[in-house]
Amino acid sequence: MESAPFGRRLVALVIDWIIASLTAVAITPVSYPPDNITQNLIITGFFIVEVGVLVGLLGASIGKRIMRLGVINPDGQAIGIPQGLLRTALICLVIPPVVTNADGRGLHDIVTGSREYKA
Asked: What pTM, to 2 d.p., does this model score?
Protein backbone atom coordinates (compact mmCIF):
# COMPACT_ATOMS: atom_id res chain seq x y z
CA MET A 1 0.00 0.00 0.00
CA GLU A 2 1.44 3.35 -1.07
CA SER A 3 1.95 6.09 1.53
CA ALA A 4 -0.07 9.26 1.09
CA PRO A 5 1.85 12.10 -0.59
CA PHE A 6 2.42 15.18 1.57
CA GLY A 7 0.66 17.55 -0.87
CA ARG A 8 -2.54 15.50 -0.87
CA ARG A 9 -2.44 15.28 2.92
CA LEU A 10 -2.13 19.05 3.14
CA VAL A 11 -5.05 19.68 0.77
CA ALA A 12 -7.19 17.21 2.74
CA LEU A 13 -6.28 19.03 5.96
CA VAL A 14 -7.31 22.39 4.49
CA ILE A 15 -10.64 20.96 3.26
CA ASP A 16 -11.34 19.47 6.68
CA TRP A 17 -10.39 22.73 8.43
CA ILE A 18 -12.75 24.73 6.19
CA ILE A 19 -15.59 22.29 6.88
CA ALA A 20 -14.97 22.43 10.65
CA SER A 21 -14.82 26.24 10.53
CA LEU A 22 -18.07 26.51 8.58
CA THR A 23 -19.77 24.06 10.94
CA ALA A 24 -18.62 26.01 14.00
CA VAL A 25 -19.80 29.30 12.48
CA ALA A 26 -23.17 27.76 11.60
CA ILE A 27 -24.00 26.43 15.08
CA THR A 28 -22.05 28.58 17.55
CA PRO A 29 -21.48 32.32 17.97
CA VAL A 30 -18.06 32.05 16.28
CA SER A 31 -17.07 34.44 13.52
CA TYR A 32 -14.70 33.67 10.69
CA PRO A 33 -11.97 34.60 10.78
CA PRO A 34 -12.03 34.07 14.54
CA ASP A 35 -11.81 37.22 16.68
CA ASN A 36 -10.03 35.70 19.66
CA ILE A 37 -8.38 32.60 21.10
CA THR A 38 -11.69 31.26 22.42
CA GLN A 39 -13.18 31.22 18.94
CA ASN A 40 -10.00 29.58 17.61
CA LEU A 41 -10.29 26.87 20.25
CA ILE A 42 -13.95 26.27 19.39
CA ILE A 43 -13.07 25.78 15.72
CA THR A 44 -10.18 23.50 16.70
CA GLY A 45 -12.56 21.46 18.87
CA PHE A 46 -14.96 21.06 15.94
CA PHE A 47 -12.03 19.99 13.75
CA ILE A 48 -10.83 17.38 16.26
CA VAL A 49 -14.29 15.89 16.75
CA GLU A 50 -15.35 15.91 13.08
CA VAL A 51 -12.12 14.51 11.67
CA GLY A 52 -11.42 12.22 14.63
CA VAL A 53 -14.83 10.55 14.54
CA LEU A 54 -14.90 10.16 10.74
CA VAL A 55 -11.34 8.78 10.57
CA GLY A 56 -11.99 6.56 13.57
CA LEU A 57 -15.21 5.07 12.21
CA LEU A 58 -14.83 5.21 8.43
CA GLY A 59 -11.07 5.45 7.91
CA ALA A 60 -11.32 8.84 6.16
CA SER A 61 -12.52 12.36 6.80
CA ILE A 62 -14.35 14.34 4.13
CA GLY A 63 -11.10 15.96 2.99
CA LYS A 64 -9.29 12.63 2.90
CA ARG A 65 -12.15 11.05 0.93
CA ILE A 66 -12.05 13.89 -1.63
CA MET A 67 -8.26 13.53 -1.94
CA ARG A 68 -8.53 9.72 -2.08
CA LEU A 69 -6.63 9.07 1.13
CA GLY A 70 -7.37 6.72 3.98
CA VAL A 71 -6.18 5.88 7.49
CA ILE A 72 -5.93 2.29 8.73
CA ASN A 73 -4.52 0.32 11.64
CA PRO A 74 -2.02 -2.55 11.16
CA ASP A 75 -4.92 -4.95 10.49
CA GLY A 76 -6.20 -2.78 7.63
CA GLN A 77 -9.27 -1.62 9.58
CA ALA A 78 -10.46 1.82 10.70
CA ILE A 79 -8.55 2.92 13.80
CA GLY A 80 -11.53 3.52 16.11
CA ILE A 81 -12.86 6.72 17.63
CA PRO A 82 -10.42 7.07 20.58
CA GLN A 83 -7.40 6.64 18.29
CA GLY A 84 -9.01 8.90 15.68
CA LEU A 85 -9.52 11.67 18.23
CA LEU A 86 -5.97 11.30 19.59
CA ARG A 87 -4.49 11.26 16.08
CA THR A 88 -6.39 14.41 15.11
CA ALA A 89 -5.47 16.22 18.34
CA LEU A 90 -1.81 15.44 17.65
CA ILE A 91 -2.16 16.85 14.13
CA CYS A 92 -3.32 20.11 15.71
CA LEU A 93 0.01 20.34 17.55
CA VAL A 94 1.71 20.63 14.10
CA ILE A 95 5.03 19.01 15.07
CA PRO A 96 3.86 15.34 15.07
CA PRO A 97 2.83 15.29 11.38
CA VAL A 98 6.00 17.11 10.33
CA VAL A 99 8.41 14.69 12.07
CA THR A 100 8.36 11.49 10.02
CA ASN A 101 10.20 8.19 9.89
CA ALA A 102 11.72 6.49 6.83
CA ASP A 103 8.28 5.12 5.84
CA GLY A 104 6.80 8.63 5.80
CA ARG A 105 4.72 8.04 8.93
CA GLY A 106 4.41 11.04 11.22
CA LEU A 107 4.62 10.83 14.98
CA HIS A 108 0.82 11.11 15.15
CA ASP A 109 0.55 7.89 13.11
CA ILE A 110 3.29 6.12 15.08
CA VAL A 111 1.67 6.99 18.44
CA THR A 112 -1.78 5.83 17.33
CA GLY A 113 -0.62 2.78 15.37
CA SER A 114 -2.11 4.11 12.16
CA ARG A 115 -0.96 4.59 8.59
CA GLU A 116 -2.24 7.12 6.06
CA TYR A 117 -2.30 5.70 2.57
CA LYS A 118 -3.19 6.66 -0.99
CA ALA A 119 -6.46 4.92 -1.87
From this structure: 0.94
